[in-house]
Specification:
By secondary structure, the chain is of the alpha/beta class. Helix content is 33%, strand content 27%. Strands 1, 4, 5, 6, 7, 8, 9, 10 and 11 form a nine-stranded mixed beta sheet that branches. The chain has a two-stranded antiparallel sheet with strand order 2-3. Helix 1 packs across helix 6 and helix 2 crosses helix 6. The protein is elongated. It starts with a helix and ends in a 5-residue tail after the last helix.
């Protein structure tokens, strides 16, 4: 072991010595496919990665349901963390972040009748919707100055505008967009292509928990890219979409990020 690995692991043994001192992932229900409940148990992308990190460190991590956006836990000794998805590493005064864990491709959805988009920059004088939480409007305007980008607060609103021909396309990350299309039965809409732009996933912690951040970084560095996959539920959903919508190129995206071994 490297000296820094020994140091981190020894610190973790000390920090986890008390039963009251736990390392807890905050989860939100109905955040498919990242975190959601099935039979009163959390499933999803975030649970899979959290369990993988736990296995890499041979330590039992816990989870906690966040019922609202209030993350104040005044009477808890547990160290809290949550997943953040961002094109660039976030920079908040009172927060620190792990290394990027994995990449999630951005994709564009269009009506079924639209041709495959090999290069979005070849299009101009069109309106394209984008999920506003991505915070990528400025970046997209720089890459594609001929396109008018319109932000939407939810996939439902963006996909409704697309369905009503108010947009040429709608952009979000691949996992969420596929889930929204499947859930709302937009049979006239397909995932057209990938933008070659990726979100990174990070774990966010309070600044005072730097030692735990270093430990998580150690576990992240031990994860071989492409060696992990989504939960069986999400994988089944994605494969089902490949079967019923083979024209939407999902099979290509899944091979590209190696979610499923082929």
């Amino acid at each position: 072991l490297l000296w820094e690995e020994i140091s981190c692991l020894q610190w973790f043994e000390f920090a986890s010595g008390s039963k009251e001192n736990q390392f807890t992932l905050l989860l939100k229900d109905s955040n498919m496919p990242f975190s959601f409940k099935m039979s009163n148990e959390f499933k999803g992308f975030e649970i899979d990665l959290w369990n993988l990190l736990s296995n890499k460190l041979s330590k039992q991590f816990s989870t906690e349901d966040v019922l609202n956006d209030d993350k104040l836990f005044l009477f808890s000794n547990s160290i809290k963390t949550n997943f953040i998805y961002s094109y660039e590493k976030p920079n908040k005064k009172d927060k620190i972040y792990t290394k990027p864990i994995n990449e999630i491709p951005l994709v564009i959805a269009t009506k079924n009748g639209k041709n495959f988009i090999s290069d979005l920059s070849s299009l101009g004088n069109i309106k394209v919707g984008i999920f506003n939480s991505l915070n990528l409007k400025g970046k997209l305007l720089t890459l594609y100055p001929k396109i008018e980008f319109i932000e939407f607060e939810s996939d439902n609103l963006g996909l409704e505008a697309l369905n009503d021909d108010k947009l040429y396309g709608y952009i979000n990350n691949m996992y969420t967009l596929n889930s929204s299309l499947s859930k709302n039965s937009h049979s006239d809409i397909k995932v057209n292509s990938s933008l070659n732009i990726y979100l990174n996933s990070y774990l966010e912690l309070n600044t005072k928990d730097k030692e735990l951040r270093d430990i998580l970084d150690l576990a992240i560095s031990k994860i071989k890219k492409g060696a992990w996959g989504l939960s069986s539920f999400i994988t089944v959903c994605e494969v089902f979409m490949v079967i019923i919508q083979p024209h939407n190129m999902i099979n290509i995206f899944l091979r590209k990020i190696r979610v499923i071994p082929w």
